[in-house]
Specification:
The complex is a heterodimer of chains A (258) and B (151). Chain A is α+β, with helices and mostly antiparallel strands and 258 residues long. Helices cover 58% and strands 15% of the residues of chain A. Chain B has a single domain, classed as Ubiquitin Conjugating Enzyme (Roll), CATH 3.10.110.10. In chain B, 36% of the residues lie in helices and 18% in strands. In chain B, helix 3 crosses helix 4. The chains are: A alpha+beta (258), B alpha+beta (151). Chains A and B meet through helix 6 and helix 8 of A and helix 1 of B. Chain A: This is ubiquitinyl hydrolase 1.
Chain lengths: 258, 151
């Protein structure tokens, strides 16, 4: 038993070191970069080169996110709030929905005391997008790179996704592998920080907020096209993400629709 | 310096004082809010009844994103407590949620005392006795209860 415990501690320590290295070198949310930067990453890789070419026809820029297991939620949070900066109507709709979500979560028996803390910080970030002038973009960027704000936004988005899965548990149960209930799945894979996101997380969050997300999948699959999936199916995408195995970054279209 | 973890721990402490759950208490140590001392009183109608079990809780700056390390300082005999006082409890590992606060952690450990999980043992002797020889199990637990008065 003793040796098991110390073995565990060694593994945990090693994990910590890897995490520290990543957090020292990659920002939570990076600057906007030209998409052609990807070409250099896969210089000797003909499959990816073709796919990047396809991607470059549709998209102009990429914004990288830190690969810490929270990248989907963080990328979505930033990209959607950035999208809302100049869209008053969509912003108002979202602000109202975000405001009301607190009572919805409390009704689902999330602990009120801690929930309020996350909700307050989440609304502070949402409100920063609605108020103020020119500096809103840099303020959003600053908040998303400040761990305290950024992680609380991620936590809150995870709770919203979890709440949606629980409310529609009967439906989502069909998509959960193994012998887990929806609640178990939420407790193990959705609510804890640093847990990577799968389709089900994306479907849950996009449905809960009623915001379309298009994910471009770049992998070693056949063909030269980077396949797109829209969540929820058939919804106009407001946020575009690039998926490479295990990681999500933000994409910016060449000719953005609203 | 105020960091998100420290701010949140101040809130946790305030809540624990204003709305204390029955049978548990906890407070930061004098000079370090990241290390807490806590006490769990043995729940009624269990062999742990009347015991006052001391614990330490160590937080990192990643709290509440990551759970704290919680250890019993008092000697324990329980299927889910390691020899060094470490606790095998899912919410302190893979089911941790940032929505749990100190109050929730302590009440979860308290209910672990009432309802051990002998299928994921940290102390295999305790787990075996709990399943097969409840009298001997209770005797060993009672010895810890008495020890807890002395500590």
């Amino acid at each position: 038993m003793e040796s098991n415990a110390s073995q565990d501690e060694l593994i945990i320590q090693q994990h910590r070191e890897i995490e520290r290295e990543i957090s020292d070198t990659i920002k939570l949310i990076g600057e906007k970069e030209n998409l052609s930067t990807l070409k250099n990453e896969y210089i000797n890789d003909p499959v990816y080169q073709k796919k990047i070419l396809d991607l470059c026809n549709k998209y102009e820029n990429i914004r990288r996110t830190r690969p810490d297991g929270n990248c989907f939620f963080r990328a979505f949070g930033f990209a959607y709030l950035e999208h809302l900066l100049d869209k008053k109507d969509q912003y108002e709709r979202f602000r109202e929905l975000a405001e009301k979500s607190k009572d919805q979560l409390i009704a689902l028996r999330f602990p009120k005391f801690t929930l309020e803390d996350f909700h307050d910080v989440f609304m502070e970030v949402v409100n920063a997008v609605g108020e103020g002038g020119e500096e809103r973009m840099s303020e959003l960027y600053r908040m998303f790179n400040e761990q305290g704000y950024s992680d609380y936004v991620v936590v809150y988005l995870r709770l919203i996704a979890s709440a949606h899965l629980q409310e529609k548990a009967e439906f989502y149960q069909n998509f959960i592998e193994g012998n887990r209930t929806v609640i178990d799945f939420c407790h193990q894979e959705v609510e804890p920080m640093y847990k990577e996101s799968d389709h089900i997380h994306i479907i849950a969050l996009s449905s809960a907020l009623d915001v379309g997300i298009r994910v471009r999948y770049m992998d070693r699959g056949d063909g030269s096209e980077v396949i797109a999936h829209d969540f929820p199916e058939g919804t106009a995408p407001r946020v575009h993400l690039l998926y490479r195995p295990g990681h999500y970054d933000i994409l910016y279209e060449k000719n953005p629709s609203s | 310096m105020s960091t998100p973890a420290r701010r949140r721990l101040m809130r946790d402490f305030k809540r624990l004082q204003e709305d204390p759950p029955t049978g548990v208490s906890g407070a930061p140590t004098d000079n370090n809010i990241m290390i807490w001392n806590a006490v769990i009183f043995g729940p009624h109608d269990t062999p742990f009844e009347d015991g006052t079990f001391k614990l330490t809780i160590e937080f990192t700056e990643e709290y509440p994103n990551k759970p704290p390390t919680v250890r019993f300082v008092s000697k324990m005999f329980h299927p889910n407590v390691y020899a060094d006082g470490g606790i095998c409890l899912d919410i302190l590992q893979n089911r941790w949620s940032p929505t749990y606060d100190v109050s929730a952690i302590l009440t979860s450990i308290q209910s672990l005392l009432s309802d051990p999980n002998p299928n994921s043992p940290a102390n295999s002797m305790a787990a075996q006795l709990y399943k097969e020889n409840r009298r001997e199990y209770e005797k060993r637990v009672k010895a810890c209860v008495e020890q807890s008065f002395v500590d």
